[in-house]
Amino acid sequence: MKIKISTIYIIIFCIAFIPTGGIFGIDLNYWIKYILGAVWCVLGIQLISNRKNKARDGGILRNYYGFLLIPFIVMLIHLPIVYFIYNQHFDGAVFNRIISYFVQRCILLAIPIVAALYFKLNSIKYTFYALCIDYSLVIMNAIIKYGIGNFVKFALSAWRDEWNEWQASNSIASALEVHDLTFAIGFFVLYYLLFSEQKNKVKDVKLWIAFLYMWLGFKRIEMLAILIAIIVMKVMLKKCAKKKINIKSAIINVGLIVVFIAFIAIVKSNEIQDLALQYAINFNGRLHSYALLKDYYSMSLLFLGRGYCYSTLVLDRLQDLSIIHSDILKSFVDYGFIGFCLWISYYVYFLPKKFINESKSSMSKKTAIIMITFSIYAMITYLTDNTNVYFCFQTAYLLIPFAVLFEGMKRE
């Protein structure tokens, strides 16, 4: 019996999306996710090269993959410069960590483009199926371990402090809060709510399933980020003319940069500790890790950054078991003031601008709006989490916009 390529894709990513900690005792080494992703990329590129329009598709693949790599190539060029200027220690362990992160990113950027180019809009559906299968298994595992009664109780009161993971680390709340899957599902909530062209009950079912799984994962920053992304999209982007999208994205970009720079400055000044005490804000232990980084950056335009992955290496050297739950803070330390601003601008302004200028796709405007909306959501989660390196999250982040773009090219 011949197995469909779509079935192979779903099976590959059902395995690759298995959350950290495992399901039913099945856990994966971190690198297995990337090996499986690389296997899909090789298979997908081979399938694309066998099609009659392989020359056109090959050009599209090289064009967009090369564009996605630009920030990371710049980061590698930036790396030896800042290590020399700040006289930072560099050895084999540092080199291995940097190369490891770069190879992972290369694979992570290729996965969504190859899937979107081969399956077009169907890649969204197949990826959603893989996520749903995995999260359904997470739910089954949690019910078996903690009972249906606790599951129903949590589902009806997930917002209550008693379920806070730091206060109930061995509870059904912690079993259901699988970070990568939960945050990745947020993109599908946004897509099916705001952008899907389906006008039938199937779309409504997918939206409710996505919302249910997001609710059970219950990440407060995710819900806040989705709400802000929806409001900005409805107010600034929904009825925006194509030629004005670049202006609107520039305004949004500047707004995000101002908010994030303010956050970084507050962390540096220790005022975040005072705010946490004054308003009884529970940062779930994050303030300790933030304090570890504040001595490694300055709020000067001349701060050049410490180099790609440096913030991660800090904890290794300090032999601290904390995780720095803020990709915004880590990126500022790594890229510097101007580099940080350019990093945000790449996803909020420059990548949507490239989509807008794609004359071969009837979906170019829609793709640009999706990318801006998704970037707002992603960047806000970066404030208090490490979603910038999450496998499922980064796959969904790029796959959905590219699937819409390539579907528009097919229709032309």
Write up this protein.
The protein is mainly α. It has one domain. Helix 11 runs antiparallel to helix 15, helix 11 runs parallel beside helix 16 and helix 15 packs antiparallel against helix 16. The longest helix has 32 residues. The protein starts with a helix and ends with a helix. The model has no long low-confidence stretch (mean pLDDT 88).
Briefly say what this structure is:
The chain has helices at residues 5-16, 30-49, 54-85, 92-119, 122-146, 148-156, 172-176, 179-195, 201-217, 220-237, 245-269, 271-278, 286-293, 310-318, 327-356, 364-384, 391-411.
Biggest sheet record: none
Taken together, the total number of domains comes to: 1
Q: Indicate the overall shape.
A: globular
Straight-line distance between termini: 35 Å
Q: Stretches where pLDDT falls below 50 for ≥5 residues?
A: none
Average per-residue pLDDT, rounded, comes to: 88
Percent strand equals under 5%
Let me know the number of strands. 0
Computed structural class: mainly alpha
Residues in helix, %: over 70%
Number of helices: 17
| Rg of Cα set | 21 Å
Transmembrane segments: 7-25, 31-49, 61-86, 98-119, 168-195, 207-233, 245-267, 335-351, 363-382, 388-406
Protein name: O-antigen ligase like membrane protein
Keywords: Membrane, Transmembrane, Transmembrane helix
Record the SSE blueprint.
Layout: H1 5-16, H2 30-49, H3 54-85, H4 92-119, H5 122-146, H6 148-156, H7 172-176, H8 179-195, H9 201-217, H10 220-237, H11 245-269, H12 271-278, H13 286-293, H14 310-318, H15 327-356, H16 364-384, H17 391-411
Helix pairs in contact: 1-2, 1-5, 2-4, 3-4, 3-15, 4-17, 5-6, 5-8, 5-17, 8-9, 8-10, 8-16, 8-17, 10-16, 11-15, 11-16, 15-16, 16-17
